[in-house]
Amino acid sequence: MKLALRLAKKGEGKVSPNPMVGAVLTKKEEVIATGYHRYFGGPHAEVEAIEKAKGEAQGTTLYVSLEPCNYYGKTPPCTEKIIQAGIKKVIAATSDPTSKGGLTHMAREGIETELGVCQEEAKKLNEAFFNYLRKKRPFVIVKAAISLDGKIATPGGESKWITGEKSRRFAHSLRDKVDAILVGINTVIKDDPSLLPPSSRRRFVRIILDSKLRIPLEARLLNDQEKAGTFIFTTWQANKKRLEELKEKGIKVVVTEAKQEKVSLKEVLKKLGELEIMSLLVEGGGEVIASFFEEKRVDKVFLFLASRIIGGKEAPTWVEGKGVNLLKETPYISIDSLKKIGGDYLLQGYVK
Length: 352
Fold this sequence. Notes:
The chain is built from eleven helices and 16 strands. By secondary structure, it is α/β, with parallel strands linked by helices.
């Protein structure tokens, strides 16, 4: 099953809105064939493994990281392929609420089934998928590169670069693992980022929160629409002339309700959920990140910690906003891992 999970992870960033799945066929503890879901709309992991077995699947045991599907979608049901191949036993790491009773159906057809091997690892692998099933909104990941005292720039505004090159490369690679990236208009005006992913993607969306439509028409985020589309979420306060200019350029602009003169995050996440955006990387700035925390919309954090102190009351921090009055109101981060990357550290944690 560990091998099936490693195979499944190869589909990260390529199969959404489907889950990542890996499969291993064995006979007498020997691996006969393997497979994984490579891209959205492509063959499922179980089917790939069976086809690679070339007729030797009869009497084998199938280890699969997620319960096989039992319905017609982009592809036929995996359960029927498994039954036809003569597989003797199916071991699934975790159940899939969307499978339409895959394990139950196969058990009725005489196949021995087992559920729960490496279950926690399997659920964590597809945490964005399971989050979407529960909440119908993206799994929100906040990413920030900070000094040890929590600053993202000096009092004078210098921010390039707080962390080292290895950290920056790893941080950039995170875009290949998510469906969308989000920043606020202040970040766009200050840094003029392109926010493109490192590699060519089937789909990747760049999102800007801009309550008054202050975005410059020459902003890099408005270019390369064939590589990654841009969504701008704004409010009734939007500059009407700029709204028309953006529409002429083919940029998608969504007008939401204003919450304290800011774009409604609830509406943003609802819209992204409707678009089947499973995972969202929030890159800042500090006010935007604060808004996500204040509205309890953050699921996970990636903090790149540089071994430096910046100091200064005017230096911006990675979480700005109004803050909390009582310690009991603070979001709690359950630290999942801390690892060294070059001269920096990467802290990963979940918001409880």
